[in-house]
Each structure stands twice: as structure tokens, then as C-alpha cells.
Automatic annotation (TrEMBL):
NCBIfam families: hisG, HisG_C-term. SUPFAM superfamilies: GlnB-like, Periplasmic binding protein-like II. This is ATP phosphoribosyltransferase. GO terms for biological process: L-histidine biosynthetic process. Gene3D superfamilies: 3.30.70.120, Periplasmic binding protein-like II. Feedback inhibited by histidine.
Amino acid sequence: MSKLKIAIQKSGRLSEKSLELLKECGIKFPNGGGKLIAESKNFPIEVLFLRDDDVTKYVEQQVADIGIVGENVYLEANLPVKVLEYLGFGSCRLSLAVSKEVDYTGITYFEGKKIATSYPFILEKYLKQQGVNASIEFISGSVEIAPSIGLANGVCDIVSSGSTLMSNGLKEVDKVLDSQAVLISNQALGEEKQVLLDKLLFRIKSVLNAKERKYILLNAPNDKLEQIISILPGMKSPTVLPLADEGWSSLHSVIQEDQFWDIIDELKALGAEGILVAPIEKMIY
Ligand code: PRT
Ligand code: ZN
């Protein structure tokens, strides 16, 4: 029987979350630390543990069928593979930064200057779009030290909290790209593998949908029910059950995580009580 091969990062910022996502999809692996390949016992899938820089290439070459990689790394590889899903972890941005002493007034600052980066392809495309002529110095690591050692006037690097830039005397001046982990796939999977992939994708979507939402339960006075329902955009419509207390009902629904605090304030203002918000593990449409 055919097996799906997924390439994920062996050790680094995406490793744990990638394995966790597979686990949340009900896919179990034996605990064999340090192995480069692991086979699941309960789903026809094999995991290849690789350096993140190799994931896109191996998916394109069909060494793996699918892979999880940072969108920044996938875009830099510039290979013909498909992005199937944005996974919501590994968030960061690719930004331009200069010495904090520079009086930066805009992207034209870089005209005729030199920028150090590990992302020459993305940067070149960006500079072209912006109409700026700058030379690009490729460095594979420790990009942040380039300006202080006189190698470049600025850098284009991954930023998340910004503390690495700060501790190297740099400031972020322009965002080139927002990035997060993506699920990529080879463009020519056979029929059998496609069936397995569809099954996996259905599970991944259910997990991701659930992460974005919360289950909410509350007690509401009957005369405010209609107004409360109108601000609760549930899956279809909220469930309403009468409470033993006359004039009150219990209401159950699902809300978007990011609307959470706004909605809670409105609900309280309408007299809702005993508000409970709980995580959802899976959400099937
Ligand atoms: O060994 P391998 O080649 O597999 O791993 P790697 O060292 O090349 O990659 P890794 O594990 O560092 O990152 C994997 C992916 O995580 C990246 O491709 C991004 O998509 C994503 N990611 C998220 C990050 C960061 N956040 C991040 N902060 N990748 C790198 N960084 C680095 C950045 O390069 C800089 O040195 O962290 C530093 C900045 O962090 P702040 O918080 O100080 O701004
Ligand atoms: Zn890497």
C-alpha cells in the first residue's frame, strides 16, 4: 500500500510544532529519538527529518510528497511546489534593518548601497518592485553583524521579537515579508497518495479551524436573548436551552478567538452571566 512521505525540520524552530500538528491529527509515532525517518503505526505516513533549507527541494524532487517549512524558506527556494495550507505557527517577518544611528527616511536610503542577507532571491525581487538599485551580499548566517564589520550598509533578515537586531545596534526600517509555517506539496502526486493527502488535509483543517475558535456558554435573561444571539456568530445558530430559573436561558455557541474580548464586553453589557469560554479540540464542518 502506498504511503505519504512528509518532510519536516529535524531540529529548530518549526520541529516541535510540526510534530504536534501531526499528533493533533491523531497520527502517532513511536518515540525513537534521533532517527531520520519515522513511520506512523496508525496512518500510512512516513516522516523525514531534514534541515529546513532542504525541505522544499526534496518535495519538488519527490523525495517527499509534502513538507512543512517557513514561507520565507519556500519563497527563497523559488521551486514549483504547491502551498496547501498556512499553519499558523513559526510566525516572523523578513525585514530590512540599518544601524540605529542612521537617519532613515525611506527605502531610497538603500540606493547604491550594499545589503547583507541569506534571502537574495526574495530581496532582489523586493528591491526591483521598489525601484531601488542596491547590491546584495549573500551570507548564510550571523547576518546581523555585517554592518558593524563594514561588510554592508544594512541587512535583510528574519525578525521576530526584534531583540537580536537591537543587541547588534540595528533598527528595523522596512518589512519585506510576513511569514509563517506552510504545508507544501509536490505538484504531481499519484492518485493513491492524493487520497491519503486529502484525508490528512481534512484533519489538519479541522485542527486549524478549532484553534481559531472558542466554545462559549453563558446564561442570559430571556428578554435580551435576541440581542445576544445577534452578536454571537455561531456555526449555524446558537443552541438555547431553558434554565430552571424562570426568565433565563443557557446559550451555547462558537466564536472567533480574535473577536473574543470585544464580544465578551458586549455580552456583559446585555446582562449575560456565568460566561464560560473553552478551547475546542477539533472542528468538523
Ligand atoms: O538547522 P536548520 O537549517 O533546519 O534550521 P535554521 O537554523 O535554518 O532555522 P530555524 O530553526 O532558526 O528557523 C526555522 C524557521 O522558523 C525559519 O525559516 C522561519 O520561518 C521561522 N522563524 C520564526 C524564525 C524566527 N521566528 C526567528 N526569530 N527563524 C529565525 N529566527 C532568527 C532570526 O534569523 C534572527 O537570528 O531569530 C533571530 C531573530 O529573533 P528575534 O526574536 O531576536 O527578533
Ligand atoms: Zn536552515
